[in-house]
């Protein structure tokens, strides 16, 4: 399972980076989103993998997933959402101001 | 009835529901792959998949009702929700497909009809509700 | 009373929903559920512009039963079509003029058509006068329209619209 | 609660088969999603994928004998619908909130 | 009721937060009211910062346990000499920037004051937090506020620069999370003091991972600090932003520098075993390179705002070069330099706007424009600030540069540092002389008439000029403070002890025994039971 | 003693007066300035007298001990000599400038700059601390920049000032380096300590670098070859400035420093081999160029260069007697050169030109000026009975003395004589070409002697030249004595200040020079032509300009290379940097650890396949943006499933909700963006990006693998244990979010609030073209709100609200919480907008949603502040059970209020963002309709 997760993180990062390096705003936003998925997944699994043991306290269970990375990822997701929303609107603003959707503001 | 027998019966019942549910779920997706045009494919998930998941949800309701104290019916909520929304989703997808003139094996309805359904040609009836201010009671 | 309890049926539904959600019928939860079932419709009342007047509740109940049974039939039918030879599928579009007029009844009819055997409501004309239906075995469109009219549209008309 | 019997063999077997079938369903939906060919096809496939995952979650709930993931299933059902509506409306109207 | 004095550590965060929130609630209120509230907030912040500074000046470390949860379990704020000084400089800068903004540039959009306050909150939080993930959160606060402030006023140039700035920083934030995640994944904690303890006791097989994370974190901080080659975002962003915004941005590169200083002295400091002094060699080389590249930018700039933006890069390079030397004298020199360069570059940005405004269509372009009616005043202020920033006596930059060179005298890097610092100073001076001579001396008779600058607009600029002089006059006490701050940084044991309250657990030891459990309990937990 | 700093301070304070005084009347600024200089001079008298007794006065005040910087002033013979020169010539220049400056010249500014310069010069020569000396040194560069560029409208003035600043300022920086090294060698920056260290400094390995750097400062300031070229261009300054800066003060600062540090630095081979040749070259080049300049001030400028070379050469020779000659020539040169500059200024002022090719026969028009100029020029030429003769004689004597040491040194007296002859020639030219040699041609105005007072300063200086020339030991003698004592830091050598030394080789050289000079002048016309063809094109300014242009060009080229305004470039750099650092971190370390791993199951594998398909699909279809978006949402869904599988229900719920809102957001945005991405990346570019992507993916994958295969131990055990007793909730994740790490959450909602504000700001007045057709060119369906959707979506709202309340209330103990509840409500409301439109929905929503942002933030903060009231830190929570009849046990926690704040912020923000974004199209369409109305 660990290998699967590592591969997933790597793949998401790779796809995110490739899209980040495109010349138009929309693919870049998609890239940012993919990259933040990678980051969130990565940050989450830093508490290691555990199946069927959510961090909801129950009287007869001793095993729990590490709750702290989950809390961190929640924060990261929320912040990431705010940032994505901002950059999406900025892309629109740039398109309106610059007349095109190239990240450098000019058609190549 | 002994506890063991109850357990067995419930288990068999739940197992059956699971198998039926999973089977229909698969059937829905299978149709998605097998059928030949979008309009045909639209039939399968709306019916089979919805029923399949509904069956699984009932299995869950039975299982938890039996396993934990009290009646567990909240799964019904999801099932009802799916049954209400699935046709709406299908309707909207079909509408989009007709708008895009997605090809159909049997041929699309006449263009004039599609134009009319797109709201072109005939003037659409204005949405009366949007204009009038809503009263408290509606 | 109307302003205080704009939608008693909705309120009841919501209370039921609450109890389903919490999986409990303790007095505290009933009280809390009641409170919410009162407050939420109060806030959302203005979204419910069309008041549904159920004239024949029993007919509606019967229709519900018919639909549920038809859903099961529909699934088996569809299953056979999917798994069986594809040649058995002779699809076609059917244009069905509507007799129901109300928002709720038109919507209900469209949904029922989709959930029941072999048919799918593909498009409702913007003036709500007709429905384009896609049928998996649509050679005999008249028969399909007749069946829909008899099985679903008429009961809907009777239960919700006929005065 | 602790005196409850363990999940039995039949149920486990059914769960295993169930997981297998739903997993295949997921992959088939994914296949349709990938091959399209039209935009509405992809919406349909995505919608089905959402419902398939509801099925997976229900199975997981039963398997873990814990209803902790019920809300997730509920939200997937809800958001699958909203997503389908938004994607479809984009195709017919462009402006989805207007 | 409690003594409010106990909460002085968190005040620099809460004051702007509450001011900002109040301004959000007063959506649509009149500009004078917004200005008054904003200004009052800053004055309150200034008072709080001063109070905090006085509290830590004698060497006390103030630890504030949020939610009464002890470190390392909860988040703590820590005020030492360095963080208090950073907060103080931020507050002073905020005052000047706000004085400038309320002369009219805040009017270009309604949200200026809100964004300004939240940016202050982010800055102060970053300076005060003792928790690595919380540092990330405050980074995000200050970044998103800075995105807004950069775009404040709108226009094509800002949109383009903003897009670059935002996307680059979003990637930076992702890297931050990768780094923090790895550190947590290996060390199992987020509190910086606790991280320091655990790094010191790191088993050899984990060294590679932690080093990778630490270096990745360095990339993030270097990006914020505009260390070459990660400075590319800065010139465009800073030159496009309105001066009322960018005046406050002058401190933002300092956040990067601060974080480098904090993390690599505390967590990866001298006691970090195989990871000790991890980034110093990088810092030294890249810092010098930054100075060179910044100077190239200064020479090549065709407008004043861009030139000043490159000056920010140079000053960042100078500070990080000093930090790269690592000795107490060098850190102290870097800090001394850092405080004044933030103020001076901010004032230059403000002056740029004043000049641009009087020159009409010529704005801040470095070409002959209309005769300036107030050339003496504007040019005089420019001269003073230019000298200060180029490191020419008798202004503050001179002492800063001398201190940095002096700190390098007995190191092998002396030749490089002296050659680069001195020659770039000359080139900077030449470029500034050219710019000043073009702007204030040279006139194009066909250029039409310039307008008279608003004298009130120049008050903050003049104030910084005076401060720059006073900074030299009182160099000795200021340096004593930075020296003490550097000493505090170089003895992280005190910090660790203060934060963990004497708890000296080595990494890997269990913390789950009942004793430590009760340590972290709030005094009133379950109070109503 | 204590008035030493006052001497320096007075001009600085006085510099503020002239701009005020000028308001009373122009002359007032001159009198005030003169008064300031006089006051400083008066203050010098008492300490000056003690210095003449051989004392060295030092006043010291700690300033910045850590740096070695103290406020320290020193008055010894050398300093006194310079102070007197600065103040006395300064007074004369002030007087002269009063009549020199034209009506339109702002006089207040002139005198202010002049006093600034005077103060800087005084500070420089009186500094006891070397860093302080350097500060004044740079101040002289800056104030001279201001003085040279005084006529700022003139391009040559601006440029001359910039060249001067670049050269002398740069030299100052080198000097700084040298001084820091010297201080490092000696251990102190106090001059006394440095001088006391004496020759021991030479042994230090840092000596040569220190010497070179210090000499760079000296040579630039004193216009030594090859830095001499700034001086002629500084002649664009008003003539009083030239008379002051370029005779007695600014340019003398360099040689002053040579003299000042003479005991510490001189006497080594390096010293001799650097200083003497530079001095000699400068002497010759200056003299040569002076002769060929047609501009009067140009001639004087090169002559100054030449004489500074002479002084430098003398110090370079390094013997005590040479030093005596050097100091003596400093004094003499100051007097005759200042008077010559003033005379040149008068000629320029009265005749309107300084071009010697136009000037001629002025003797008839201005005999008084002519006489004074003639005497001063004779002094410059080294004519006996004038002061210039004496020091030049001493110089010749030293060259002869040096020649006796080595055979090859014979060149020295020869070159000295040639330079002497050239000096005679240019002095002759100055007199003959201007005052005689025919009649003036085509002068702008008719010249005549200037007003009486303008001549007084020249007369004073010329009288000194004569007096010193005849009675050297009675005039400059005593001052020279103490000055030399100070330079040598010991007893002065035996030297005699006599007019007649008998027939010495030096006298012969003098005579030879006089004769040779006359000869050179006689054949000037062919020489001018010869010079014109050989060196006519060489122009130092053009060289500097060329250098500056090259610097500018190369920096612009480099700048364009480095500072590319390309996002892709920035990202490539950033990602590469991260990769390099990761590689460096991992280098040589094992990747895989020893922890036991979990098995892989088919469901997870299939999910991973979906994830991969979604991610790769997003990349593959990124040109078909809508399709890419669909693929992206698959990734989001699978991530949520992963969270479910890996025991993180809260995360799954949040991920799903955020995912939903993000997709709606992206769809809203996509409407206004192109639906396709053009193909514009070249194949190499794509391959580069692919490589970088694969490396990045590989790196994070390996990082993940490395961490996951290692066992660890974390602080979260404590959190599990304390969640119920400390935080009052069984959902540990939620307790961490709202309690243990509630501060993070407060920050997180602040980020959201700021994002909303920024977005709100960006959307104001946003004008975007609304596409009238879909990407296949088909007009949009006009069925805006399909009925079936509208009908069923209305049912959704109350249901979703109910679910949200449920999720919110249970969050503390079970998966859920304010954030998720907020998003559910938001999505339900967004659904209303989707199905029914903005206008319809807005009418039915009670109240605005914007205030929720501020109120939520306020509520969350206020909850945190509430704990202050009970004496606990910010965000300290409390919880407890409330026993109510019928209802039973009700658990309440203060963090629920906090969570409520979070929920409010989330609702406010999501709707503000989405609805405002949705409204763009609405507004645009309305605008379009209005426009078409207008057109009709
Ligand atoms: Na039950
Ligand atoms: Na002539």
From TrEMBL, chain A:
<dbReference type="InterPro" id="IPR039428">
    <property type="entry name" value="NUOK/Mnh_C1-like"/>
</dbReference>
<feature type="transmembrane region" description="Helical">
    <location>
        <begin position="28"/>
        <end position="51"/>
    </location>
</feature>
<feature type="transmembrane region" description="Helical">
    <location>
        <begin position="6"/>
        <end position="21"/>
    </location>
</feature>
<keyword id="KW-0812">Transmembrane</keyword>
<keyword id="KW-1133">Transmembrane helix</keyword>
<comment type="similarity">
    <text>Belongs to the CPA3 antiporters (TC 2.A.63) subunit C family.</text>
</comment>
<protein>
    <submittedName>
        <fullName>Na+/H+ antiporter subunit C</fullName>
    </submittedName>
</protein>
<keyword id="KW-0472">Membrane</keyword>
<dbReference type="GO" id="GO:0005886">
    <property type="term" value="C:plasma membrane"/>
</dbReference>
<dbReference type="InterPro" id="IPR050601">
    <property type="entry name" value="CPA3_antiporter_subunitC"/>
</dbReference>
<dbReference type="Pfam" id="PF00420">
    <property type="entry name" value="Oxidored_q2"/>
</dbReference>
<keyword id="KW-1003">Cell membrane</keyword>
Automatic annotation (TrEMBL), chain C:
<dbReference type="GO" id="GO:0008324">
    <property type="term" value="F:monoatomic cation transmembrane transporter activity"/>
</dbReference>
<feature type="transmembrane region" description="Helical">
    <location>
        <begin position="60"/>
        <end position="83"/>
    </location>
</feature>
<keyword id="KW-0812">Transmembrane</keyword>
<comment type="similarity">
    <text>Belongs to the CPA3 antiporters (TC 2.A.63) subunit E family.</text>
</comment>
<dbReference type="GO" id="GO:0005886">
    <property type="term" value="C:plasma membrane"/>
</dbReference>
<protein>
    <submittedName>
        <fullName>Na+/H+ antiporter subunit E</fullName>
    </submittedName>
</protein>
<dbReference type="Pfam" id="PF01899">
    <property type="entry name" value="MNHE"/>
</dbReference>
<keyword id="KW-1003">Cell membrane</keyword>
<keyword id="KW-1133">Transmembrane helix</keyword>
<feature type="transmembrane region" description="Helical">
    <location>
        <begin position="12"/>
        <end position="40"/>
    </location>
</feature>
<keyword id="KW-0472">Membrane</keyword>
<dbReference type="InterPro" id="IPR002758">
    <property type="entry name" value="Cation_antiport_E"/>
</dbReference>
From TrEMBL, chain E:
<feature type="transmembrane region" description="Helical">
    <location>
        <begin position="454"/>
        <end position="474"/>
    </location>
</feature>
<feature type="transmembrane region" description="Helical">
    <location>
        <begin position="307"/>
        <end position="327"/>
    </location>
</feature>
<feature type="transmembrane region" description="Helical">
    <location>
        <begin position="6"/>
        <end position="25"/>
    </location>
</feature>
<dbReference type="InterPro" id="IPR003918">
    <property type="entry name" value="NADH_UbQ_OxRdtase"/>
</dbReference>
<feature type="transmembrane region" description="Helical">
    <location>
        <begin position="74"/>
        <end position="99"/>
    </location>
</feature>
<feature type="transmembrane region" description="Helical">
    <location>
        <begin position="111"/>
        <end position="127"/>
    </location>
</feature>
<feature type="transmembrane region" description="Helical">
    <location>
        <begin position="333"/>
        <end position="351"/>
    </location>
</feature>
<feature type="transmembrane region" description="Helical">
    <location>
        <begin position="282"/>
        <end position="300"/>
    </location>
</feature>
<keyword id="KW-1003">Cell membrane</keyword>
<dbReference type="InterPro" id="IPR001750">
    <property type="entry name" value="ND/Mrp_TM"/>
</dbReference>
<comment type="similarity">
    <text>Belongs to the CPA3 antiporters (TC 2.A.63) subunit D family.</text>
</comment>
<feature type="transmembrane region" description="Helical">
    <location>
        <begin position="413"/>
        <end position="433"/>
    </location>
</feature>
TrEMBL record, chain F:
<feature type="transmembrane region" description="Helical">
    <location>
        <begin position="628"/>
        <end position="646"/>
    </location>
</feature>
<feature type="transmembrane region" description="Helical">
    <location>
        <begin position="745"/>
        <end position="763"/>
    </location>
</feature>
<keyword id="KW-0472">Membrane</keyword>
<dbReference type="Pfam" id="PF00361">
    <property type="entry name" value="Proton_antipo_M"/>
</dbReference>
<dbReference type="Pfam" id="PF20501">
    <property type="entry name" value="MbhE"/>
</dbReference>
<dbReference type="InterPro" id="IPR007182">
    <property type="entry name" value="MnhB"/>
</dbReference>
<feature type="transmembrane region" description="Helical">
    <location>
        <begin position="369"/>
        <end position="390"/>
    </location>
</feature>
<feature type="transmembrane region" description="Helical">
    <location>
        <begin position="852"/>
        <end position="872"/>
    </location>
</feature>
<keyword id="KW-0406">Ion transport</keyword>
<protein>
    <submittedName>
        <fullName>Monovalent cation/H+ antiporter subunit A</fullName>
    </submittedName>
</protein>
<dbReference type="InterPro" id="IPR050616">
    <property type="entry name" value="CPA3_Na-H_Antiporter_A"/>
</dbReference>
<keyword id="KW-1003">Cell membrane</keyword>
């Amino acid at each position: 399972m660990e290998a699967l997760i590592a591969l997933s993180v790597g793949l998401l990062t790779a796809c995110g980076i490739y899209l980040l390096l495109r010349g138009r705003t929309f693919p870049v936003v998609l890239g940012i989103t993919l990259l933040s998925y990678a980051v969130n997944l990565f940050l989450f699994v830093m508490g290691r993998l555990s199946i069927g043991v959510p961090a909801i306290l129950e009287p007869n269970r001793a095993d729990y997933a590490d709750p702290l990375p989950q809390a961190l990822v929640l924060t990261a997701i929320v912040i990431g959402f705010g940032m994505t929303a901002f950059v999406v609107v900025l892309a629109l603003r740039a398109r309106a101001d610059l007349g095109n959707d190239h990240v450098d503001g000019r058609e190549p | 009835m002994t506890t063991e027998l109850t357990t067995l019966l419930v288990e068999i019942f739940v197992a059956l529901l699971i198998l039926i549910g999973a089977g229909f779920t698969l059937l829905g997706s299978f149709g998605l792959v097998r059928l030949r045009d979008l309009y045909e494919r639209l039939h399968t998930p709306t019916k089979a998949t919805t029923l399949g998941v509904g069956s699984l949800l009932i299995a869950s309701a039975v299982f938890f009702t039996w396993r934990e104290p009290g009646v567990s019916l909240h799964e019904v909520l999801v099932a009802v929700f799916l049954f209400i929304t699935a046709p709406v989703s299908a309707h909207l997808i079909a509408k989009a497909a007709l708008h895009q003139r997605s090809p159909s094996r049997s041929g699309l309805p006449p263009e004039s009809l599609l134009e009319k359904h797109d709201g072109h040609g005939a003037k659409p009836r204005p949405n009366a509700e949007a204009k009038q201010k809503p009263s408290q009671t509606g | 009373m109307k302003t205080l309890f704009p939608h008693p049926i909705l309120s009841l539904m919501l209370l039921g929903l609450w109890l389903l959600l919490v999986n409990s019928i303790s007095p505290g939860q009933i009280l809390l559920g009641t409170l919410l079932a009162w407050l939420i419709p109060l806030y959302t009342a203005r979204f419910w512009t069309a008041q549904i007047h159920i004239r024949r509740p029993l007919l509606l109940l019967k229709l519900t039963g018919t639909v549920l049974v038809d859903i099961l039939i529909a699934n088996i039918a569809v299953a056979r079509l999917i798994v069986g030879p594809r040649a058995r599928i002779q699809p076609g579009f059917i244009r069905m003029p509507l007799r129901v007029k109300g928002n709720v009844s038109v919507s209900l009819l469209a949904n029922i058509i989709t959930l029941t055997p072999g048919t799918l409501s593909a498009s409702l004309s913007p003036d709500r006068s007709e429905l384009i239906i896609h049928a998996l075995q649509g050679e005999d469109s008249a028969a399909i329209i007749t069946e829909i009219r008899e099985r679903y549209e008429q009961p809907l008309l009777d239960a919700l619209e006929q005065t | 609660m602790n005196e409850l019997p363990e999940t039995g063999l039949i149920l486990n077997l059914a769960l295993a088969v169930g997981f297998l079938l739903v997993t295949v369903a997921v992959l088939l939906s994914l296949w349709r999603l990938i091959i399209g060919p039209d935009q509405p096809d992809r919406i349909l496939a995505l919608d089905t994928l959402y419902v398939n995952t509801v099925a997976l979650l229900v199975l997981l709930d039963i398997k873990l004998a814990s209803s902790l993931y019920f809300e997730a299933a509920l939200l997937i059902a809800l958001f699958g619908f909203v997503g389908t509506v938004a994607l479809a409306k984009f195709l017919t109207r462009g402006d989805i909130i207007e | 009721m409690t003594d409010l004095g106990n909460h002085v550590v968190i005040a620099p965060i809460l004051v702007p937060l509450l001011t900002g929130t109040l301004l959000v609630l007063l959506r649509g209120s009149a500009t004078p009211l917004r200005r008054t509230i904003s200004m009052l907030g800053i004055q309150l912040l200034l008072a709080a910062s001063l109070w905090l500074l006085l509290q830590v000046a004698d060497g006390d470390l103030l630890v504030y346990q949020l939610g009464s949860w002890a470190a390392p379990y909860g988040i703590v704020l820590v005020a030492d000499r360095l963080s208090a000084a950073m907060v103080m400089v931020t507050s002073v800068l905020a005052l000047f920037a706000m004085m400038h903004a309320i002369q009219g540039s805040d009017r270009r959009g309604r949200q200026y004051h809100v964004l300004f306050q939240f940016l202050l909150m982010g800055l102060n939080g970053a300076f005060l937090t003792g928790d690595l993930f919380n540092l990330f959160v405050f980074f995000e606060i200050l970044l998103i506020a800075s995105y807004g402030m950069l775009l404040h006023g709108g226009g094509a140039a800002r949109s383009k620069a903003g897009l670059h700035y935002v996307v680059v920083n979003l990637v930076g934030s992702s890297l931050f999370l990768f780094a923090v995640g790895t550190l947590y994944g290996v060390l199992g904690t987020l509190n910086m003091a606790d991280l320091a303890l655990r790094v010191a006791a790191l088993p050899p097989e984990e060294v590679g991972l932690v080093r990778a994370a630490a270096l990745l974190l360095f990339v993030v901080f270097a990006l914020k600090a505009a260390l070459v080659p990660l400075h590319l975002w800065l010139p465009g962003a800073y030159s496009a932003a309105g001066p009322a915004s960018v005046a406050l941005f002058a401190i933002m590169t300092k956040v990067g520098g601060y974080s480098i200083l904090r993390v690599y002295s505390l967590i990866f400091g001298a006691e970090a075993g195989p990871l000790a002094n991890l980034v110093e060699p990088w810092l030294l080389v890249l810092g010098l390179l930054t100075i060179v590249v910044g100077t190239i930018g200064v020479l090549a700039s065709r407008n004043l705002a861009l030139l000043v933006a490159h000056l920010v890069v140079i000053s960042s390079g100078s500070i990080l070069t000093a930090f790269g030397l690592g000795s107490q004298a060098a850190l102290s020199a870097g800090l001394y330099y850092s405080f004044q360069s933030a103020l001076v570059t901010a004032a230059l940005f403000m002056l740029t706007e004043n000049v641009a405004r009087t020159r009409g269509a010529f704005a801040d372009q470095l070409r002959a424009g209309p005769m300036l009616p107030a050339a003496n005043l504007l040019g005089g202020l420019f001269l003073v600030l230019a000298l200060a920033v180029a490191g020419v006596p008798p202004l503050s930059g001179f002492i800063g540069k001398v201190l940095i060179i002096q700190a390098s005298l007995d190191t092998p890097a002396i030749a490089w540092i002296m050659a680069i610092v001195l020659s770039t100073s000359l080139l900077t001076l030449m470029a500034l002389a050219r710019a000043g001579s073009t702007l204030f001396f040279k006139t194009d008779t066909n250029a039409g008439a310039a307008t008279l600058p608003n004298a009130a607009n120049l008050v903050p600029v003049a104030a910084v000029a005076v401060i720059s002089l006073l900074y030299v006059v009182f160099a000795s006490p200021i340096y004593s403070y930075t020296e003490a701050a550097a000493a505090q940084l170089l003895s992280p044991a005190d910090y660790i002890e203060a934060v963990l309250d004497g708890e000296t657990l080595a990494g890997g030891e269990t913390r789950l025994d009942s004793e430590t459990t009760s340590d972290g309990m709030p005094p009133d937990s379950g109070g109503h039971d | 003693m204590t008035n030493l700093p006052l001497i320096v301070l007075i001009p600085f304070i006085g510099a503020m007066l002239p701009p005020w005084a000028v308001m009373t009347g122009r002359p007032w600024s001159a009198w005030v300035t003169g008064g300031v200089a006089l006051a400083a001079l008066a203050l010098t008298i008492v300490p000056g007298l003690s210095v003449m007794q051989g004392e060295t006065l030092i006043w010291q005040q700690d300033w910045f001990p850590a740096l070695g910087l103290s406020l320290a002033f020193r008055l010894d013979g050398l300093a006194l000599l310079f102070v007197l020169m600065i103040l006395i010539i300064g007074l004369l220049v002030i007087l002269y400038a009063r009549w020199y400056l034209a009506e339109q010249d702002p006089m207040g500014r002139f005198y202010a700059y002049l006093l600034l310069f005077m103060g800087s010069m005084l500070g420089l020569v009186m500094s006891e601390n070397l860093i302080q000396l350097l500060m004044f040194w740079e101040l002289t560069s800056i104030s001279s920049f201001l003085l040279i560029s005084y006529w700022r409208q003139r391009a040559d003035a601006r440029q001359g000032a910039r060249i001067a600043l670049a050269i002398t300022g740069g030299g100052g920086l080198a000097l700084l380096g040298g001084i820091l090294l010297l201080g490092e060698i000696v251990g102190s920056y106090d001059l006394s300590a440095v001088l006391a260290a004496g020759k021991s400094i030479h042994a230090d390995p840092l000596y040569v670098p220190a010497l070179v750097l210090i000499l760079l400062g000296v040579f630039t300031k004193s216009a030594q070859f090859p830095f001499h070229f700034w001086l002629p261009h500084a002649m664009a300054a008003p003539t009083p400035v030239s008379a002051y800066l370029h005779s007695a003060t600014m340019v003398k600062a360099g040689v002053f420093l040579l003299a000042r540090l003479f005991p510490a630095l001189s006497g080594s081979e390096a010293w001799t081999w650097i200083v003497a040749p530079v001095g000699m070259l400068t002497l010759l080049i200056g003299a040569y160029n002076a002769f060929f300049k047609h501009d009067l001030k140009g001639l004087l400028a090169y002559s100054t260069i030449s004489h500074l070379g002479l002084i430098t050469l003398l110090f370079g020779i390094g013997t005590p007697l040479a030093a005596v000659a050097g100091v003596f020539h400093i004094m003499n040169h100051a007097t005759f050169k200042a008077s010559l500059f003033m005379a040149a200024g008068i000629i320029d002022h009265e005749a309107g030109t300084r071009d010697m090719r136009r000037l001629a026969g002025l003797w008839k028009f201005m005999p008084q000026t002519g006489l004074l100029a003639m005497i001063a020029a004779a002094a410059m030429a080294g004519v006996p009975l004038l002061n210039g003769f004496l020091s030049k004689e001493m110089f010749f004597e030293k060259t002869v003395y040096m020649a006796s040491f080595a055979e090859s040194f014979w060149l020295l007296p020869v070159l000295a004589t040639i330079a002497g002859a050239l000096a005679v020639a240019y002095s002759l030219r100055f007199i003959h070409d201007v005052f005689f040699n025919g009649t003036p041609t085509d002068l702008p105005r008719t010249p005549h002697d200037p007003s009486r007072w303008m001549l007084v300063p020249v007369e004073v200086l010329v009288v000194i030249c004569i007096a010193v020339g005849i009675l050297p030991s009675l005039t400059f003698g005593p001052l020279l004595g103490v000055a030399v004592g100070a330079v040598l830091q010991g007893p002065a050598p035996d030297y005699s200040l006599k007019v007649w030394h008998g027939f010495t080789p030096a006298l012969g050289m003098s005579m030879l020079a006089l004769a040779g000079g006359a000869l050179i002048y006689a054949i000037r016309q062919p020489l001018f032509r010869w010079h014109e063809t050989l060196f006519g094109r060489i122009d130092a300014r053009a060289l500097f300009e060329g250098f500056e242009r090259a610097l500018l060009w190369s920096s612009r080229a480099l700048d364009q290379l480095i500072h590319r305004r390309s996002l892709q470039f920035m990202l490539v750099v950033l990602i590469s940097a991260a990769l390099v650092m990761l590689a460096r971190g991992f280098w040589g370390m094992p990747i895989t650890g020893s922890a036991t791993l979990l098995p892989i199951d088919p469901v997870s594998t299939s999910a991973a396949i979906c994830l991969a398909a979604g991610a790769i699909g997003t990349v593959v279809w990124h040109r078909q943006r809508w399709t890419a978006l669909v693929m992206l949402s698959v990734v989001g869904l699978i991530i949520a499933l992963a969270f479910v599988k890996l025991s993180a229900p809260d995360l799954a719920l949040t991920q799903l909700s955020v995912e939903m809102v993000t997709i709606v957001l992206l769809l809203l945005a996509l409407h206004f963006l192109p639906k396709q991405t053009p193909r514009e990346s070249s194949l190499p570019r794509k391959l580069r990006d692919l490589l970088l992507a694969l490396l990045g993916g590989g790196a994070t994958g390996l990082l993940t693998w490395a961490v996951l295969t290692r066992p660890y131990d974390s602080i979260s055990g404590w959190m599990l244990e304390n969640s119920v007793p400390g935080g009052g909730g069984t959902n540990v994740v939620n307790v961490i979010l709202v309690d243990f790490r509630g501060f993070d959450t407060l920050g997180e909602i602040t980020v959201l609030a700021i994002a909303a504000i920024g977005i709100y700001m960006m959307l104001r007045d946003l004008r975007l073209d609304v596409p009238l057709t879909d990407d296949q060119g088909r007009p949009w369906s006009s069925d805006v709100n399909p009925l079936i959707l509208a009908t069923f979506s209305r049912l959704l709202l109350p249901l979703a609200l109910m679910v949200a309340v449920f999720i919110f209330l249970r969050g503390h103990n079970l998966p859920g919480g304010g954030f998720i509840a907020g998003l559910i409500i938001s999505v339900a409301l967004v659904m209303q907008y989707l199905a029914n439109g903005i206008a319809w929905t807005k009418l039915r929503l009670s109240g605005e949603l914007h205030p929720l942002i501020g109120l939520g933030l306020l509520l969350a903060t206020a909850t945190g502040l509430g704990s202050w009231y009970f004496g606990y830190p910010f965000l300290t929570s409390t919880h407890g059970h409330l026993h109510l009849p019928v209802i039973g046990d009700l658990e309440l926690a203060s963090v629920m209020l906090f969570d409520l704040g979070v929920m409010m912020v989330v609702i406010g923000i999501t709707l503000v963002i989405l609805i405002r974004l949705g409204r763009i199209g609405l507004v645009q369409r309305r605008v379009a309709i209005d426009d078409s109305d207008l057109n009709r």
